[in-house]
Amino acid sequence: MQKIQTPFYYYDLDLLDQTLSKMVRARGDSSFHVHYALKANAEAKILAKMKATGLGVDCVSGGEVRYALEQGFGADQIVYAGVGKTDWELELAISSEVHGINCESIEELVVIAEVANKLQKSANVYLRLNPNIDAKTHPNITTGTLRNKFGIPANELWLALEELAKYPCLVFAGLHFHIGSQIEDLSPFVRLCTEVNVLQKALRDKGYNPANVNVGGGLGIDYKKPDANPIADFDTYFENYRRYLNIYDNQQVHFELGRSLVGQVGYLFSEVLYIKKTKELDFAIIDAGMSELMRPALYGARHVIQNVSSVLPDHEYEVVGPICESTDTFGKHVLPTTQRGDLLQIRSVGAYGSVLSTQYNMRGENQPMFSDEENAQQFFSALHAEV
Ligand SMILES: Cc1ncc(COP(=O)(O)O)c(C=O)c1O
Ligand SMILES: N[C@@H](CCCC[NH3+])C(=O)O
């Protein structure tokens, strides 16, 4: 078999199917609607699965809105958030008639109205509120506290509604929240329900009856044990919302899940280039680096790494990439004794992996491999024959 150029991302589409079926079962077919957070992974094959499952999309830029439309999602399935929407992005969203624009400031509300008036269109607006809840996740991926740039502080809700009421072209679609990502302890979601209940009750008391509420995404995955827990705990996640969120008659509840749908589906395959020993450390220098997978350098994130071509006794390595940055490291890992030419797989990289890759150091683009392709079958049979 012709050698496949490393590094490359591999996606297990069977696991994606299983994840989606489990999610759909846990969600039920009630008033709960899931929009896939496209920023997590935008591969067309992955999006096609989301579409076939009947999910909508959560977009955070005009580019994502345009791409989602090109991939065949209906505008009525698209929600669009972002603290810095430009005029052309708003024009695209409003003229396409997306399901909702999640407005993140009172200043933005004014611009949405200007753009809608210019286009002689109306716009469905959600108010993204910042509920000041600590999501108990990594500080860099916490979004719902007042130290974060996201959303309108919850105590400015009435000011925002007053502003919104000035523009007949704006339709108040509901409240929106998103408190953070990779949330493993689910108690912040329960707290979110309590906050949403208070705010929705206050809205009702003042005569507002929004048709929707959007609670965002954030459900975490098990980065430490991807084989033991390949699928996130969707049952508890949705059960919490069923139990703790007060949903009004005919109100639709929207979710924006990203990582939990695709995280475990992705692998990054990389070849070992050199083993370099110093007095301090044994380095395994591999051909994937922060240009392919940024998460360790950005957040100190740890991914399980496995050597799929060695069965020798274990040894500890500092696994590093080839990039000219000292943060280009995947950390210490115990691997079977590793040599030049061995193949490593880095796990749980389906979300916020390839989408965050850069051209830093002019590393060139990598072609992904999907489990339903012939070359994937050949690749795995050759691998199993070798080991
Ligand atoms: C507004 C919004 N919705 C949804 C998501 C998706 O989050 P996750 O991938 O953690 O489910 C994000 C990312 O954190 C986000 O910023
Ligand atoms: N890029 C982050 C997630 C960001 C979520 C989007 N707001 C990660 O890799 O964990």
Keywords:
Lyase, Ornithine Decarboxylase, Chain A, domain 1, alpha/beta, 387 residues, elongated, TIM Barrel, eight-stranded parallel beta barrel
Write the layout of secondary structure elements.
Elements: E1 8-11, H1 13-27, E2 32-37, H2 44-52, E3 56-59, H3 62-70, E4 78-80, H4 87-96, E5 100-103, H5 106-119, E6 123-130, E7 152-153, H6 157-165, E8 170-176, H7 187-205, E9 212-214, H8 234-244, E10 252-257, H9 259-262, E11 266-277, E12 282-286, H10 295-299, E13 305-307, E14 314-320, E15 329-336, E16 343-346, E17 369-370, H11 374-386
Parallel strand pairs: 1-17, 2-3, 2-10, 3-4, 4-5, 5-6, 6-7, 6-8, 8-9, 9-10, 12-14
Antiparallel strand pairs: 1-11, 11-12, 11-16, 13-16, 14-15
Helix pairs in contact: 1-8, 3-4, 4-5, 5-6, 7-8
